[in-house]
Please model this.
Amino acid sequence: MKQSSKQNRKTSFRIGKVRGDLLGKIWYLTYWENGKRLRPRIGPDKDHARQMAAQINSQLESHTHSVFNFEPVLIDEL
Model:
């Protein structure tokens, strides 16, 4: 049986600890950092989502903060 092109299209990928999911027409990345699940919205371009996933994965492996991790800083600490 022949499958339609929509059924053949991959809707997810994994690069190390980072998973990419296509929801509708937008790619989201999912990963865990400091015990929290982060799921940033990337956009409609799969190649850009894969590049961001690779960058985040390398940051997670080197134990540096990822691009999307936000930690508030008090005014006094600045």
In short: The chain has two helices and five strands. The mean pLDDT is 85. Residues 71 and 77 are 12 Å apart (CA to CA). Residues 12-61 form one domain.
